[in-house]
Amino acid sequence: MATASALEVRDIYAAYDSADVLEGVSLKVPAGKITCLLGSNGAGKSTIIRAILGLTPPRAGDILIDGQSLVGLPTHKIISAGIACIPEGRKVFPKMTVVDNLRLGGYQENTEAVLKDRMDQVFEIFPRLKERRNQLAGTMSGGEQAMVSIGRGLMAAPKVLLIDEPSLGLSPLFVKENFNIIKRINDQGITVFLVEQNVHQTLAIAHYGYVMSQGRVVAEGTAQELSENKEVHEAYFG
Amino acid sequence: MTQSLKDKLVIILLAAVIAAFSITFIAIEEQVEIFALLVFAAALVLGGAKLGITASIAQSLARNERLMNFAFIAATIAVVFWFREDHFPLLMIATVLLYVIACCGLNIQFGFTGVVNFAGAAFFGVGCYTAAVLGDTSVPLLLVILLGGIIAAIVGSVLIIPVLRTRGHYAAVVTIAFGLLFRTFLEVNDTLGGPQGLGVSGMNLFGWDFNNNIEISENLEISFYMNYVVLALIMVVLTFVLMRRIERSWIGLNFDAVRLDETAAACFGINIKRWKIVAFTLGNFLAGTAGALYAMMLGFIAPSNFAFSDSLILVSIVLLGGMGSLWGTILAAGLVVLLPEKLQVIQEYRFLIYAVVMILILLFRPQGILPRGLRAYIPGWRG
Amino acid sequence: DAKDKVKVAFIGPLTGGVSAIGVGGRNSAELAVQLRNADPDAKYEYELVAMDSECKPNVGVQVATKVAADRSIIGLVGHYCSAVAMGAVDIYHKFNLPMSVWGAVLPDVTYGNDYKEIHRVNGTMINQNDVAAKFMAEQGYKTWVIIHDTTDYGKGHNKYFSEYLTQNGGEILADFGVPADQQDFTAELTKAKQLNPDVIYFGGLVPLGVRVRSQMEKLGISAQFQGVSGIKSDAFIEGVGTELSEGVVSFLEGAPVDKLPGGQYFTEKYKAAGFAEDEEAYGPFAFAAMSLILDGIEEVGPNRKKLTKYLGDIQGHDSIVGKISFDDHGQNTVAAITKYVVQDGKWVVWEDSEYATGARKLAGK
Amino acid sequence: MAQQQETVLTFRGLTRRFGGVIALNKFDMELTNGQILGLIGPNGSGKTTSFNVLTGIYEANGGSIEFLGQDITSWPAQKVYEAGVARTFQRSRLCLELSIFDNIMIGNHKRLNQGLLFNIFQRKALKEQIQENHEEARKLLKIFDPALAEKMFDPVGSLRMIDRRRIEICRALISHPRLLLLDEPSAGMTHEETRELMDDILEVREMIDGLSIILVEHEMGMIERVTDKCIVLNFGQKICEGAYRDVASDKLVQEAYLGGE
Amino acid sequence: MDVGLLGQFVVNGMMLGMMYALVAVGFTLFFGVLDVIKFSHGDVLMVGTFAGFSTYLGMTAIGIDNAFIQLIGVLVISIGSMAILGAVIARYLVLPLKSAPPLNTLLVTLMLGTVLREAIRLFYPDGSNPKHFPALLPTDSWSLGSFTLRSDSVILLVGGLLVIVGVNMLINRTRLGLAIRAVAQDEETAKCMGINFKMIVLLTFALGSGVAAFAGVMNGLYYNEINFGMGLLLGVIGFSAAIVGGLGNIYGAILGGFLFAGLQTLGAVALPFASAYKDVFAFAVVIAIIAWRPTGLIAEKTSERV
Ligand SMILES: Nc1ncnc2c1ncn2[C@@H]1O[C@H](COP(=O)(O)OP(=O)(O)OP(=O)(O)O)[C@@H](O)[C@H]1O
Ligand SMILES: Nc1ncnc2c1ncn2[C@@H]1O[C@H](COP(=O)(O)OP(=O)(O)OP(=O)(O)O)[C@@H](O)[C@H]1O
Ligand SMILES: [Mg+2]
Ligand SMILES: [Mg+2]
To answer: Measured between alpha carbons, how far is C360 from C350 in angstroms, rounded to an integer?
Structure first.
C-alpha cells in the first residue's frame, strides 16, 4: 500500500472472561482512507474497536497509531492520540442535553470558539439536533440518538474515527445520508475505520475492507475485490 | 466409587467440618486462637477456590440438595448438642438463628424484589414490643410469635404508599426516616416503657416454662436456652422452606422481574404493586416473628436496641452473605453476630477491628460471600 | 507457692458515645485488681474479665449471660447505663452472680426488684436531685428551664428533679427533651431565652452538656447553668473552655475522692498505673465496688452464694467513696451527695469554693 | 388470508405529546385478524411511541384505542397484556441475570398460576406446570435456534445480541397473544440473519391462531417480504397507507423516508 | 411571637440549614459521579474537624496566635487533608466495588465510617471526650430586642453560601463539571470521549470531602465544640436532605438541608406537642414528602425511554 497506516493492529488476541474472542487479528487502516470491517454477528468486530480504545485491552499483540504503540495506555490517552469513536448502540449520555453531549465529544478541545465552530457544522448536518438542542438525549428516538452519537464523534475532529454500526436503526433515507456524511468526513482528511452490516453501501464508499468470522480475518482486499469475491458475496449479500 | 456416592461423602464431610469449625469458633476465647482460626478458614476457602475444590464441592451440593439440607441441619444439631449445658453459646446460637429469620425477611424485600428496607430493626422491634405487651396476657405464646409478625406487617403498611412510589435511594430514605422515627418515638413516649425499656416474660408452651433449665438427670442439666434454640431452629427451617419455595416458584420469578425491570415486568402483566406489597409485608412479618421470640429469650428490651445502626447490621448481613442468597445469609449472620462477640477480648478496639474485617471481606468478595445462583426450579432438573 | 486463680468481671460501655466513662471505670476496676494482686497478703490471684455492653440492652444481656454463665467468675462490677442494668439484673439473679453496680443511677436497678445479688455502691438519681433542688432553691433561684436527653438517664433526672423542685418552691417554665445525639440546641435555647429563667437545668451527659453550655453563650443567655452528675468530669470543662465553665454547678453521689482517706491513695495509684484515659467521675465507684468484691472473696472464699451473703451484710465498710452500707435492696445508703462548682477551670467542692464564701457569685446573683 | 377481515385493533385520532414535541398526531389506524402491518417512517416519527401508548406505558393525550372490541385507551400495561398484546422493545429489555427460561416465563405470566397458596403449598401441581411450560418454551425456542433451546438454564447475560433478540420474541410469543408488536427486531443483523428471523416469525404465525403483528422496521427488504400492509408515519402523522409496493412508490414517502434512488 | 424572636429562629435555622446543605451537597456529588452513596461522609467531616482542631493546637504551640492566620491554616489543612482522604477512599474502597451491587459500596463506606470514628476515639489524645473548638472569628454581636446577631454567624453563613455557589458553578459551568456529569452516566462512553475517568472520580470525591471538611470546621467554629460522634447524625440528616431535595442537582441538596433545619426548629418550638417529638415530626414529614414527590422536591427530569 502506498499510504502509511494511520492505525495498525498486529496479531491481537483478546478475551472477555475466558475464551478468546479475537484470535490473532491483524489490520491496517491507511491514513486518509475509509477502511471497512465486515462480518456476521458476534464475529468480534466490536471487540476490535474496544481493543483499540483500551476498553478490552488485548491479551497479546500490538496496536499502533502513527507507529506508536497504544497497548497498555488508558483510554483517555488513546483518545488524545487522535482517535475518536462512534460506539455501537449510540451510547449517548441520557441525562444530558444534546448540546452537552456534543460538547463532551469535543472534550479534549479547550478553545470555545473552535468548539462553537464544530458544533455549528454538526447542526448543519443534523438540523434535527439544532431543533432539539436542549432535549435530554435519553428521551430521543432511536434514530435521533444515532444523530447525537455521530455528531458527538465529529466534535472531536480526530485523526482517526472509529465507527461501529452507525446505520443501526436509521431510516433508509438516513442510512444513505449517513454514508454520504462518512464520505464527507473522509474527504476532510479524517481516516475512517467503519464497522458495518450494510455491505452494499459500505463497499460503495470504502477503499479497502476486511471480512471477519469467529475472531479471525477471513478475507481482505480493496472494495472492488471484495464485492467480486464469490465467497464474501454469498455469505453477506442478501 | 460412583459419582453419587462421592457426592454424598463430600457433603457429609463438609457438614462435619462445618460443625467442627463452628464448635471451635464458638468455644475458643483467646484472641490469638480466634485470629488463627479466622485466618485458617480464610486460607482454606481461598486455597480451595484456587484449586477448584470449592467449585466441585458446590457441584456436589447442587446435585444432592436434599441430603445437603439434612446434613446441615444435623450439623447444627450437633453443634447445639455439644453446647447443651452452656448457656452463653446457646444464647449466641439462638441469636444467630433469629437474625437469620429477620434477614430472610430483608432478603425477600431487597434481595428478591429490590425493595430496600433500612428499618429492619424497627420491624424486629415491633415484634419484640408485641411480645413484651402480650407476654403478660393470657394469649398463648406461640400465637404471640405469630402476632409479632402480623403486627410488624401491619405497622409496615404505614409505609406502603411511599415504598410503592419510590425506588432506590429515595426508598432508602423512607425506611431510614421510619427507623429513626420509630426509635425516637419509643424513647419519648412512655406508654411502652420509654427509654428504660420493658421486661418480657419468657416463653411458655403448654405449661412448659422455657426459662427453666431442663434437668435430665442428676448431673445433666440442659440450659434453658436450649428451649429457645430448638424453637428458633424450627422457625429457621420453616422460614428456609418458605424462602426456597418462594424462590423456586412463579412468585420468585415475579419478584426478580420486579427488581430487574419494572417496565418490562409491567408489559408482561406482572402487577408491580402487588408483588412489592407482598414482599414488603412478608419480609416485615418474618422480622416481627423473629423479634417476638428474641424478646422472650432476652427477657428485656429497650428502644436503644432498635436504632439505625441495628438496622444496618441486618442489612450488612444480607449484603455480606450475597443478596438473595439463603446459605449466604446464614453464614453472614453467624459472622456478623459472633465476630464482635469473639472480639470482646480486645474490648474497646473491637469495633475498629470488626469494621476493618468487614471491609476486607467485601473488597475480596464484592458480590457477597456466597452469591445467589440462578434459579433452579426443581433441584437437579435441567429440562 | 502459687495462689489459686479467681476471676472477677467488669461490664461497662467501652465503645460508642459514653465509652470515656466506661473505659475510666474499667481502668479503675483493673486498678483494684492489680493492687490486690500486688498485695502479698492476698489469698488469691485475681483475673479481671472486662466486657463491653455498648450501652445497648441486647448486647448487655448477652455479655451478662456470658459472665453469669461462666461459673469461674465469682463477682461482677457492672453497668453504667441504666437500661442495660435493668435488662441484666434478672440474669444475675437467675445465675446467682453477686454484683455491684458502679455507675447506673436509675433507682429501679436496685429498688425495682428483690434480688439479693444486686448491689449498688453509687447513689441513685433520687438522692442527687433531692439535694440539687434544695440547694439551688436555697441560693434564691426561682425559675428553671429544663433541657434533658430522652434516654432513661435524662428523663429520670428530669422526673426527679421536677418533683423535688416543686416541693422546694421552684418553678419550671419549660422542659425540652432532646435526643442524646443532638447537635444544635439553638431552637430550644432561643425559646428558653424568651422565657428568661434564672437557671438552665441540664439532665444528660458531657457531650450534650458541652453543647448546651456553649450555645447558651452564643445566644447571649446569662442564666445559671446547673448540671447533673453526668457532666461532673474534666471533659466538660475541657469541652466548653475555662471561661464558660466558670460557675457551673453539678452534683455527684459520694464524698469527694480526695477528701477521703483512701481517695488520695486512689488518685495517686491511678496516675502511677499509667492508664491512657482518665478515671472519669465514676471511676472511684468502680474501684470501690471492685475492692469490695475482692474483700468479700478474700473473706469468704471464691463462692458466689457466700459472696452474695457477705455483700448483703455489708454495713459501714470503708471505701474510697466513703462508708458503704447496703440497705435491704442492696443500695448503698450512705450516698452522700457532694455539690461541685467549677472555679478557674476545676471542679471544686462547693463548700471549699470562693462561691460559698461569697467572693464569687453564681450567675444572676 | 385464512381468516375473515375481523378488526383487531383500531386507533382513532391517537395523539401524544412530550412537552413541545408532538410524537403522535391524530393517528388513525386499523388492523385486521392475522394481518402483518409494517409501521415505517423516519427516525423520531412516533413508531415506538405508538407502541408505548398502545401498551399502556404512556398515556394518550387524545384519541382512542380499541382492541378486540374493547376500549383500552387508558388501560395500564398489565391489563393490555392480559387482553392479548405482547411486545418486544427497541432496546432489548431482558433480565440479564436470569436464565433464558426465566425470561421467557416472565412473558407467560397470564398463563401461569400466580396464587400465593398454589405456589407455596401445591408443589406437585407447580412442578407439573413448570415442566409443561418448559417443554412449550423449548419448542418455541427451537424454531428460532435449536442451540438456544439446549441452554434454557443459562443466564441471558452470557448470550449474543442476536440470541437475546430471539429470546425477546419468544418471551412475547409464549403467551399466545392476539397481537404482537415488534420494534426493529432485525436491528444489527446481517441480511441472512434477518431473513432467517423473518422465516421463523412467519412460521410462528402459522402456529398461533389469528395472530396479528405490527412490525416496525427500517429494513425494507423485510417489510416488503412479510407485510400485508404498510403505514408510513412522519412527524407523528400518517402520510401514507397501503401495500408496500404502493407505499414505496409514493412520492412523499420517497422524499421523507426512503430517499429516491 | 415577637419579631425579634422570630428573626432569631430564622437565623438559627439558616445556620443549621447551611450545615445540612453543605453535607448534602457532598452526597449529591458522590451520587452524581458514581451513583454511589458514601455513608462515611459524616465521619470524614468529623475527621476534617479534628484535623482543623489539631492544626489550631499546633499553630498555637509554635506561637502563631493571630486568629486570622490560624483560621486560614485550619481551613487549608482541614480541607486539604480531607480532600486527600476522600480521594484515597475513592481509589481503594469505592472504585474497586464499581461493579458490585451499589448497596455494597454503601456498606463498605459505612464500615469505613466506623473505622474513622473509632480511630479518632481511640487514637486521638483523649479522643472520646468532646473538645473545645476555638472561636477564630470575630464575635461582636448586635442585639435588637430579643434578637442577637453575631458577626461570626454572619461570616459563616456567607462563607457557606459562597462554597455552595462555587460548587454549583463548578458542576454546571466548567469542563470539569461536564466531565463529572458524564462519568456519572456512562463510564465507558465517558472514557471514549477522552475523559480520565479515574481522575474525575478521585477529584469529585476530593471535592465532596473538602466541602465536608469545610462544613466540619464551620460546625466547630459555630458550636465551639467537637466530638468523635458528631458526624454520625449529620451524615444521616445530610443524606436525607439530599434525597428529599432531589438528587438531580445541587439545589435539591440546598432545599433539603434548609427544609430539614426548618422542620426541626418548627418541631422544637412551634408545635403543640412536647419538643421531644420534634424528630418524630421531622422524619414523619420527610416520609410524607417523599410519598408525595417520589423523586425529591426538585424532581429529576426523567430521561428513561422505553
Ligand atoms: N461483555 C462481554 N462479555 C462476554 N462476552 C462478550 C462480551 N461482549 C461480547 N462478547 C462475546 O464476544 C464475541 C464477539 O462480540 P462482538 O461484540 O465483538 O461481535 P460483533 O462482531 O461486533 O457483533 P455484532 O455484529 O453483533 O455487533 C461474541 O461471541 C459475544 O458473545
Ligand atoms: N419520553 C419522552 N420524552 C420526550 N420526548 C420523547 C419521549 N419519547 C419520545 N419522544 C420524542 O417523540 C418523538 C417520537 O419518538 P419515537 O421513539 O416514537 O420515534 P420512532 O419513530 O420510534 O423513531 P426511531 O425509528 O428512531 O426509533 C421523538 O422526537 C422523540 O424525541
Ligand atoms: Mg458489534
Ligand atoms: Mg423507535
So the answer is: 12
Residue E101 lies inside a defined structural domain of this protein: yes
B126 shares its domain with B30? no
Q: Which chain E residue has its CA at the smallest distance from B263's CA? A: E306
Over its length of 306 residues, how does chain E's per-residue pLDDT go in tens digits? 577 778 888 888 898 899 999 999 988 888 877 777 788 899 999 999 999 999 999 999 998 888 889 999 999 999 999 999 999 999 998 888 888 887 888 888 888 998 999 899 888 888 888 888 888 888 787 877 777 788 888 899 999 999 999 998 888 888 888 898 888 888 889 999 999 999 999 999 999 999 999 999 998 998 888 888 888 888 989 999 999 998 878 888 999 999 999 988 888 877 767 777 888 888 999 999 999 988 888 877 776 666
Window E:186-245, CB contacts with A under 8 Å: 186, 188-198
As a whole number of angstroms, the distance between CA B246 and CA B240 comes to: 10
Q: Which residues pair with C8 in a beta bridge?
A: C48, C75
Residue D217 makes CB contacts below 8 A (sequence gap 6+) with D38, D40, D182, D184, D185, D186, D223
Is E114 domain-assigned?
Answer: yes
Can you identify the CATH homologous superfamily of domain A5-82+159-237?
A: P-loop containing nucleotide triphosphate hydrolases (3.40.50.300)
Q: Which of the listed ranges A169-173, B180-184, D18-22 does the model predict with the highest average pLDDT?
A: B180-184
Name residues contacting ligand 2 (CB within 6 A): A 139-144, 169; D 18, 21, 23, 41, 43-49, 90; E 305
C130: Cβ contacts below 8 Å, ≥ 6 apart: C160, C164, C337
Q: Select the residue of D40, D43, D192 nearest A170 (Cβ to Cβ).
A: D43
Q: What is residue C2's DSSP assignment? A: P
Q: Closest ligand 2 atom to the C-alpha of D52?
A: 18
E306 chain-D contacts, CB cut-off 8 A: 48, 52, 57, 89, 93
From chain E, the residues in CB contact with D48 under 8 A are 306
Distance from the first to the final alpha carbon of chain E:
54
How far apart are the CA of D24 and the nearest CA of chain B, in angstroms?
21
Fold of D1-84+177-261: Rossmann fold (3.40.50)
Question: What CATH number does residue B273 fall under?
Answer: 1.10.3470
Q: What angle is formed at CA E261 by the lines to CA E257 and CA E266, rounded to 5 degrees?
A: 145
Q: Do chains C and A touch (3 or more CB pairs under 8 A)?
A: no
| Chains C & E: contacts with CB separation below 8 Å | 108
Report pLDDT digits (tens) over B196-205.
888 887 776 6
What pTM does this model have? 0.91
Note down the domain range covering E41.
3-122+152-292
CB contact, 8 Å: B241 with chain D? no
- For residue E205, tell me if it sits in a domain: yes
Give the residue whose CA is nearest to atom 8 of ligand 2.
A139
B270–D contact, CB cutoff 8 A: yes
Predicted complex ipTM exceeds 0.95: no
Nearest-CA distance E196 → chain A (Å) = 5
